[in-house]
Amino acid sequence: MTEEARDLHRVIDASVRDMLSAFRIQVQVGRLSEQALEAIIFRAAHPIVNSVATYSAEQRAALLPSIVRFMLAAFLEEIGRS
Asked: From 10, 32, 61, 81, which residue has the greatest number of CB atoms within 10 Å?
């Protein structure tokens, strides 16, 4: 794995952990509104999108399946730790 891929993986892991943490904290108060959920997801996606912003549209499109796979894996790993 290249250093760029490791960096992207770290950003994705951190973003997913932060997203789940924010969700768990906010859901303790009660049901989340759609707007609150969207804000949590947007905040988590922002660093991921920024980390690939310098790539061309074609490169970002080629990376998208891997990014989604990394996000899902990080999500499941974090849920498994709970």
From this structure: 32
